[in-house]
Amino acid sequence: MLRTTTGPGFWCECWTQDLDEQQAPALMGSYDAYSEVEANNWVGTILRTISPALDTEACDEAWERLNDHRIDTRRALLRREPWTVSITHINTRITWTVRPVLFLPLAHRQCGELPTCAYGFKPHTPQATD
Q1: Helix or strand holding residue 93 (H, E)
Q2: Which residues are CB-contacts of 106 (< 8 A; sequence separation ≥ 6)?
Q3: Taking the CB of the first residue and of the last residue of the chain, which one, N or C, has fewer CB atoms within 10 A?
Q4: What are 19-77's pLDDT values in tens digits?
Q5: Helix boundaries (H) for the chain
Q6: pTM, whole model, 2 decimals?
Q7: Could you give the C-alpha distances from 102 to 34, 46, 71, 99, in angstroms and in order?
Q8: SS3 of residue 17 by DSSP
Q9: What Rg, from alpha-carbon coordinates, does the chain have?
């Protein structure tokens, strides 16, 4: 029998949006962090990495976020509150979101016995339609 135990963590995403084209935001990447420190460091590492390529205003905003708002960010994550930061570079808005989640463990097919229903699954072959 499978045990279902959950583990707390954070789901982190990076979104970009072209403001001139007025397009919907596009997901650029995601990351599963298992602690407040890991989630905070994920955003901080990306901001430090891209800051040299940003225009002056966006770069200043990124470093302000890294230095002045780090304590507020950590406190929000310790309270398991969602957290978002955005910077705008020329006509592109980059937004990072961090949300508290409960991670479910996945069944590993290499060890242990799967429930009998797992062996009854038959992939569906799509039928051609008119």
Answers
A1: strand 92-103
A2: none
A3: C
A4: 998 788 999 999 999 999 999 889 889 888 888 888 888 888 888 887 877 788 888 88
A5: 36-50, 56-67, 70-78, 116-119
A6: 0.72
A7: 10, 24, 24, 10
A8: strand
A9: 20
